[in-house]
Amino acid sequence: MATRRHPSTTTKRRVIRTLEARRATEPVAGGTTRRFRLLMRQGDWQPAGEVVFRRSWPSRLDAKQEAMDVVAELLSSRGWVSEEDRSWLVLCLDEAVTNAMIHGNEGDPRLMVDVVVAVDAKRWQIVISDQGSGFSMASVPDPDDPESLLLEHGRGIRLMRAWLGSLTYYRRGATVVLSRRRTDVSGGNHA
Amino acid sequence: MPEPSGHLIIQAYDRIVLVQVTKERLLDMAIINAIGAELNALLDRYAKPSFVLDFAPVGYLSSAMVGKLIAFYKGVVIAKGRMAIAGVRSDLMPLFKITQIDRIIRFYPDAQQVILEYKRKPL
């Protein structure tokens, strides 16, 4: 009987490395630069810490505002994001939730966007999933290409990358994980 | 021409057009689209315009709004005009640097400074 071969751990690691879209020096909020990782991983996200929040919203713009407000208030009130960084948190939430509702779910109010917040001893994660089929990294404009300067779209990922510690995609891009170091732990005012 | 959205206050002095944004949060797509439409309509109203966009009240801005500003900038160039953005809060300025908008659009601390410069150097 023919048996299906499962890829070895080494092969999986090689695939993940191949799928790494970018590992480059990026400008960040505050004017300095640092190295940043943007990853497209196979499979589904698994929580690294405790899941403290889970809720779904329909793909409607009025629901988008509520989703952003609820999640931003949760992270701010627990001290995981400082008050001075709240505008960046709101911006990242807006970009990610808008992408999920408008691009992922194509604005169909019957389709839901799931939001999960998880936290471990050092970092928080916001996981946003839509019911779409994902996207190709090749469709994201290269911000370093001079011809991208006058494009009217394609800046959302770059903005999120500027503040977040990591931005990781799963399920071909239908799930995005936003992560950053908690501000309530030592040295927490860095990504 | 679209109806005034209420999100912008527009005053024209000769061909210098001051556009004051009244909203603090430029995140809602309906608001962003209304502002984009109102800005584009201004391009039909003035020849060789000098636009001053006053962003003083703005505290939150999404990449979609940045896209509208790029679209407006391209329209201004086609109209042989010029534009500047004024009054951007210090905590919002990194957003324009990260998206490299500061490489194509000039930024000033306040609107009055731009208006004076545009008056000194008319197109």
Structure description:
The complex is a heterodimer of chains A (191) and B (123). Chain A is an alpha+beta fold and 191 residues long. Chain A is built from 4 helices and 7 strands. In chain A, strand 4 (112-119) and strand 5 form a beta hairpin. In chain A, helix 3 (86-104) runs antiparallel to helix 4. Chain A is globular, with a radius of gyration of 17 Å. Mean pLDDT of chain A is 82; it is low at 1-8, 11-28 and 30-36. In chain B, a hairpin with a 2-residue loop joins strand 1 and strand 2 (16-21). Chain B has 123 residues and is of the alpha/beta class. The longest helix of chain B is centred in the first third of the chain and has 17 residues, at 29-45.
Key features?
heterodimer; A: 191 residues; alpha+beta; seven-stranded mixed beta sheet; 4 helices; 29% helix; globular; B: 123 residues; alpha/beta; five-stranded mixed beta sheet; two-stranded parallel ribbon; 40% helix; 24% strand
Strand order of the largest sheet of chain B: 1-2-4-6-7
Q: What would the average pLDDT of chain B be, to the nearest integer?
A: 93
Helical amount of chain B: 25-40%
Kindly report the spatial arrangement of strands forming the biggest sheet of chain A.
Answer: 1-2-6-7-5-4-3
Overall geometry of chain A comes to globular
Mean pLDDT of chain A: 82
Largest interface: A-B, 27 and 27 residues
What's the end-to-end separation of chain B, in Å? 26 Å
- What is the count of helical runs of chain B? 4
> Any idea what the shape of chain B is?
globular
Overall SS class of chain B: alpha/beta
Mind describing the biggest β-sheet of chain B? Answer: 5 strands, mixed
* Gap from first CA to last CA of chain A: 51 Å
The helix/strand class of chain A is alpha+beta
Q: Provide the succession of SSEs of chain A.
A: HEEEHHEEHEE
Q: In what range is the share of β-strand residues of chain B? A: 15-25%
SSE topology:
The complex is a heterodimer of chains A (191) and B (123).
Chain A: H1 9-19, E1 22-27, E2 33-40, E3 50-58, H2 61-77, H3 86-104, E4 112-119, E5 123-129, H4 156-163, E6 166-170, E7 175-181
Parallel strand pairs in A: 2-6
Antiparallel strand pairs in A: 1-2, 3-4, 4-5, 5-7, 6-7
Chain B: E1 8-13, E2 16-21, E3 25-26, H1 29-45, E4 50-54, E5 60-61, H2 63-78, E6 82-86, H3 93-98, E7 106-108, H4 111-120
Parallel strand pairs in B: 2-4, 3-5, 4-6, 6-7
Antiparallel strand pairs in B: 1-2
Helix pairs in contact in B: 1-2
